[in-house]
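Extended Data, panel c. Modelled sequence:
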Amino acid sequence: MRGDRRRSFSAEDKVRLVAETLQPGETVTTVSHRHGICTSLLHRWRRAARGEVPSRRAARPRLLPVRLVAPDAPPASSMPPPVSDIAPTPIEVVLRNGRVLRVAATTDAAAVARLATALEA
C-alpha cells in the first residue's frame, strides 16, 4: 500500500463504519480488513464517537511512599497509611458495544461479569 494516496472519509462514512463495528458478531479488525482501513483509525473514530478526548501524553505512574522498617521496630507516627486505606484505582472494562464499565479493583468478578452481560444486551 505504500505510495497510495491518503484517503479521506466523510463524516457519514465514519459514522457508517463505526456503526458497522458495533453490530453483533463484528469486530474492528474484520470491518477494517473488509474496507481496507487501518484498525487504529477505526479505533480512533470509535473513541471520538464516545466523546473521548485523544491524549498524546501517557499517564504518569502513581508512586506510593515506601519505608523499610525492622520487623521488631515500633510503628512510627510519620509512616504513611497502609495500602489498604488508600482508595483503589478503578478498573475500566470496555465492552464490545463500546460502553465503558468502571468498577473498583476490589469488586467481585462475578458481579462485574453480570453487569457486563446486562450492559451488552
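The chain has four helices and two strands. This feature is highlighted in the accompanying rendering.
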